[in-house]
Amino acid sequence: MAQDNKKSEHGWGFQDTRFIVHPDRSVELTGGRYEICGFRMPDFIPFVENTLGVKVDPNDLHERNPPSPVAAPRRNTAFMDALQAALPDARTSEEPAERLVHSHGQATGDEVYRVLYQQLPRAVDLVFYCCDELEAQTLVRLAHEHDVCLIPYGGGTNVSGCLQLPENETRMVVAVNTQGLNKVLWVNKENRQVCVEAGITGRDLELALAAQGLTTGHEPDSVEFSTLGGWISTNASGMKKNRYGNIEDIVESVSLVTPTGQLETLHPFPRQSAGVQVRPMLFGSEGNFGLITKAVMRVRPLPEERAYQSVLFPDPERGVAFMYELSNSSYVPASIRLVDNNQFRFGLALKPAAGVGGRIKSQLQKLFIQNIKRIDISRMAVATIVMEGTAREVEVQQTLLSELAAKHQGFMAGAHNGKRGYNLTFAIAYIRDFLTKLHVLGETFETTLPWDKIHSVNRAIIAETERIHKDFGLPGRPFISYRITQLYPTGVCVYYTYGIYTRGVANPGQVAIDADHRLRAAVVEHGGAVSHHHGVGKFRHDLLKKVLPAQNADLVMALKNTLDPKNVFGVQNGVFFRGS
Ligand SMILES: Cc1cc2nc3c(=O)[nH]c(=O)nc-3n(C[C@H](O)[C@H](O)[C@H](O)COP(=O)(O)OP(=O)(O)OC[C@H]3O[C@@H](n4cnc5c(N)ncnc54)[C@H](O)[C@@H]3O)c2cc1C
Questions:
Q1: What secondary structure letter does DSSP report for 108?
Q2: Residue 170 C-alpha to ligand 1 middle, in angstroms?
Q3: According to the model, what pLDDT value does residue 364 have?
Q4: Which end of the chain lies in a sparser environment, N or C, as judged by fewer CB atoms within 10 Å?
Q5: How distant, in Å, are the alpha carbons of 125, 518, 527 from that of 546?
Q6: DSSP secondary structure string, 18-31?
Q7: Pocket residues for ligand 1 (CB within 6 Å)?
Q8: 432 C-alpha vs ligand 1 centroid, how far in Å?
């Protein structure tokens, strides 16, 4: 039966997929899209209770309020008339529900919580559904002529406040939904290049390419919903970047429609020395410069073999030492992620009830780990691995990884666990909305750390989480965990996930916003990057200001003024934030 791919309106994911709780307190992920769908997980609520030190009442759900009212749209009638005359067939909408959807991304406290439980300060005035480049050029020209603000909208999955409307914007604001720009325009198999329209989602792109035996290899956790234009704009990174590169390695040229004309970056050669280039300045442009309409991307043949593996380490320190040595080798797998003990236990809590056989097996495994391997289960860290290539390449990687793991007292824990761990990410994305209903608010944010800062920043973030908990007088204990997801010779990308119980707390949404900001600030203060790939948006502009040399900001501003002198693309992300 064909799946209904309707997206959830404001929360995460597909409408047919959500966590529910049964009267016996087990939880279940509905639908059949992911490996963990369709069975009862009895350990999850007890895990939440033990970790947060609170009693959760599954009957006391924090259900969303009816959709918050949206103020009547501002209308620039001269613009609306000109738009109607120039593009009579274009689809537009002033429906409150559609405008609301296009006015936020997926950040927890500042966006999803506000939409579902409170109210957004303002929504876009019109949604324009863009279907081709000519339409884009006409729309941008008219917005420039009539002083209208345009905000490009891809999949709406960013988590940096990139789609939040600037409070000081007085003009009519139009969200430009790009999902009609979704065609693969050409494929050159010999040169391993494709030209793709920017509104295509990762899922549709990969399906179209797979039919031709190709892949971009770009696989962010949001691949089902995020778009090519969004990836370029936020400077995204996929889980398999070790093999395929980050988005800036995959995209070779970009077309951008701006108020001063169409910007084409140089011809997409594999590499070229042609003076200063504009292309790199579009990665991370966050909707401030224009509308990206298409790009040329590198593709590779689908790998002959994909294999999974997992490694258990006695503690995170030995896991990191393994990753450090691996990062200097030539056999880094397509993806390798090291999770700390808290995240490992989180994953275990999402398992079905074991039968008698399963309980015995799990007890034996525990005894083996504790008594034979002499590992303290409460400190154990786990790496999940994806290898891609020819069968022989994968075989060699397996052997070398196993040898390196043994050197760091790790031991291989099997392909099944590796596959489960890798794919769990897609399903775990749904848990945020479920936990919010259980009065648990949380967020995941990332950074880049040099090797010599990993442990000290992790300690600082754990300490800051505890301070935040105390300062806000929150019930129970906080949850904080980390995972290393991307490797570089000089350092790593680390994700932190925190959770707080907010039953009985006044204004929980604001507490979550303040906690997010304090944690992100602590990362930078202790030597981490502003962001590895989520970008700056509205949430990290003050942190960027602290680290960005003034001349750098001036240069970016000069580019903006050249491309968009009247600030049509007035979303005000990153250095352009003018805040209230
Ligand atoms: C569960 C989850 C998992 C995630 N996993 C990852 C991950 O693994 N890796 C990663 O990098 N990120 C990840 N993200 C963050 C997010 O998916 C990325 O930032 C993504 O690149 C945003 O793409 P989008 O199409 O949704 O853009 P949107 O959210 O719609 O927009 C983001 C910004 O880009 C601008 N923009 C969008 N399209 C265009 C265009 N055509 N032209 C000009 N500007 C445009 C918008 O104006 C906005 O400023 C995740 C988010 C969630 C919620």
A1: I
A2: 25
A3: 67
A4: N
A5: 34, 15, 12
A6: -EEE-TTS-EEE-S
A7: 12, 105-106, 151-159, 162-163, 178, 198, 220-222, 226-227, 229-231, 233-234, 236-237, 286-287, 291-292, 429, 533-534, 571, 573
A8: 18
CA dist., res. 306 & res. 302, Å (int): 10
How high is the pLDDT of residue 2? Answer: 63
CA of 155 to the centre of ligand 1 (A): 7
Q: Look at the pTM and tell me if it is higher than 0.90.
A: yes
Torsion of CA 460, 461, 465, 470, to 10 degrees: 10
Q: What would the two tokens of residue 292 be?
A: 């990206």
Q: Compute the distance between CA of residue 495 and CA of residue 444 in angstroms, rounded to an integer.
A: 7
Residue 477 amino acid letter? R
Q: Which helix (H) or strand (E) holds 513?
A: helix 508-525
| Residue among 483, 427, 468, 436 at smallest CA distance from 111 | 436
- CA nearest 458: which of 576, 577, 358, 339? 339
Query: Dmax of the chain from CA atoms?
Result: 77
CA atoms within 13 A on the CB side of 387: 23
- Pocket of ligand 1, candidates 113, 226, 428, 432: which has the most ligand atoms within 8 Å of its Cβ, to mutate? 226
Nearest in space to 220 (alpha carbons), one of 206, 239, 192: 239
> Does the annotation mark 244 as catalytic?
no
User: According to the model, what pLDDT value does residue 1 have?
Assistant: 55
pLDDT at 243: 98
Ligand 1 atom with the shortest distance to the CA of 573: 49
Q: What is the pLDDT of residue 319?
A: 98
Q: Are 518 and 478 in contact (CB under 8 A)?
A: no
Q: Look at the block and give the residue holding tokens 């507490």.
A: 511
| Ranges in the chain, pLDDT < 70 | 1-2, 356, 359-360, 364, 580
Q: How many residues does the chain have?
A: 580
For ligand 1, what atom is nearest to the CA of residue 162? 49
